[in-house]
C-alpha cells in the first residue's frame, strides 16, 4: 500500500492569539495524519507566543519561526512557509480560520487522482469572532454546482481563468485550498509578495496557468469574517489598485478576451469605485488610476449597466453569472 503523501500546513499568524488554539486543534486532529505544521508569527503583540509555546514541541510541528519585525504583507509569510515546506501538497491554514476534520481526507485523494491538477478548494462558511455562522455566502453555488453528482468538478486551468477568475477571485480564502508544492515553487514570489491585499488572487492565477482546478462542493472551511469598517475602507483603495494590475496581467495571458468583455470588466471596476466606502479624494484617485492603467471610464460603466439591464431579457449577453463554469 502506497504511503499517503506528506502535506505541509503553513500557519501564518499575526495577533490572532484568541483563535490560534482552535486553528491548531483542527489541524492536529485532522483525520488525515501525514502532515507537518509550519508555524509562522509575524511579530505579534498579543499573547500569540504563549499559544505557540504550547505546540512548538509537538511531533508534527516541523518549524516555528518568530519575526521580530512585521513583514507588512501576509504574502511574504506565504513565501517563507513555502521555502520551509517539504510536502507534496501545501495547505495555507490562516490562523483565524478553522476547518472540518475531514478537509484533508477529502482534498488529498482528489489531488492524487488528478496528477495534472494545480489545486483544489472547498466551500466555506463565513463566521463571526465567536464562530457563529453569518449570512454571507461567497461561494454562490447554483444549479450547476448543486446538481453535480460526484460533489466536485475538474476544470482546465486556462478556461477557469478566462470564464471565472477574470471576473473575480473565486478562491476568496486560502484556508480552503490544497495545492501542489512543485507548481508553487515556479511562481515568481516577488510579484505576489509585493502586494498587500490581492497577492492571493495573483498567486492562484499563476497556479492555474500550470494545471487544472478542482472545485469541491462541500463547505469544509470556516472563514473568519472581521467587522472592521475602517480597515475595509482603507484596504478598498489598496485592493482596487492592485486588482487593476492583476487584470492588466490577465489580459496579457488571455489574448482571446473580446473587446466587449474587457469593456464590461472596466465597467465593473468603475461601479466598485463609485460604490466604495472611501474618502472622496481616494475615489478620484482610483478613477484616474483606472483610466491610466486600463483605459476605463464612465463610458465603460454605462455599457456595463446597460448590459446588466438587457441581460434580463437577452440570454445571449455576457455576464459573470452566465460565464461561470
TrEMBL record:
Pfam families: Glycos_transf_2 (PF00535). InterPro entries: Glyco_trans_2-like (IPR001173), Nucleotide-diphossugar_trans (IPR029044). Residues 8-146 form the Glycosyltransferase 2-like domain. It comes from the Bacteria. Gene3D superfamilies: Spore Coat Polysaccharide Biosynthesis Protein SpsA, Chain A. SUPFAM superfamilies: Nucleotide-diphospho-sugar transferases. This is Glycosyltransferase. It comes from Bacteroides parvus.
Amino acid at each position: 500500500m502506497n504511503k499517503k503523501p506528506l502535506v505541509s500546513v503553513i500557519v501564518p499568524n499575526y495577533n490572532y492569539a484568541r483563535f490560534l488554539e482552535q486553528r491548531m486543534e483542527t489541524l492536529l486532529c485532522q483525520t488525515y495524519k501525514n502532515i507537518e505544521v509550519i508555524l509562522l508569527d509575524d511579530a505579534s503583540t498579543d499573547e500569540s507566543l504563549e499559544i505557540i509555546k504550547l505546540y512548538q514541541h509537538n511531533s508534527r510541528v516541523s518549524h516555528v519561526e518568530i519575526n521580530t519585525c512585521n513583514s507588512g504583507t501576509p504574502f511574504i509569510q506565504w513565501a517563507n512557509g513555502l521555502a520551509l515546506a517539504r510536502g507534496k501538497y501545501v495547505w495555507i491554514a490562516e490562523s483565524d480560520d478553522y476547518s472540518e476534520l475531514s478537509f484533508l481526507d477529502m482534498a488529498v485523494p482528489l489531488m492524487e487522482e488528478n496528477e495534472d491538477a494545480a489545486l483544489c478548494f472547498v466551500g466555506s462558511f463565513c463566521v463571526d469572532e465567536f464562530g457563529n455562522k453569518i449570512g454571507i455566502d461567497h461561494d454562490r453555488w447554483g444549479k450547476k454546482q448543486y446538481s453535480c453528482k460526484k460533489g466536485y468538478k475538474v476544470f482546465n486551468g486556462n478556461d477557469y481563468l478566462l470564464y471565472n477568475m477574470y471576473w473575480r477571485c473565486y478562491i476568496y480564502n486560502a484556508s480552503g485550498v490544497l495545492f501542489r508544492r512543485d507548481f508553487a515553487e515556479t511562481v515568481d514570489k516577488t510579484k505576489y509578495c509585493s502586494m498587500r491585499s490581492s497577492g492571493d488572487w495573483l498567486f492562484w492565477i499563476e497556479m492555474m496557468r500550470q494545471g487544472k482546478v478542482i472545485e469541491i462542493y462541500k463547505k469544509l472551511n470556516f472563514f473568519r469574517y472581521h467587522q472592521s469598517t475602517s480597515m475595509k475602507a482603507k484596504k478598498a483603495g489598496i485592493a482596487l489598485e492592485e486588482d487593476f494590475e492583476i487584470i492588466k496581467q490577465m489580459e496579457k495571458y488571455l489574448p482571446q478576451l473580446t473587446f466587449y468583455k474587457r469593456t464590461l470588466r472596466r465597467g465593473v471596476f468603475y461601479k466598485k469605485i463609485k460604490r466604495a466606502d472611501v474618502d472622496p479624494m481616494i475615489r478620484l484617485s482610483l478613477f484616474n488610476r483606472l483610466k491610466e492603467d486600463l483605459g476605463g471610464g464612465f463610458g465603460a460603466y454605462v455599457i456595463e449597466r446597460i448590459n446588466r439591464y438587457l441581460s434580463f431579457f437577452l440570454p445571449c449577453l455576457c455576464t459573470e453569472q452566465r460565464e461561470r463554469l
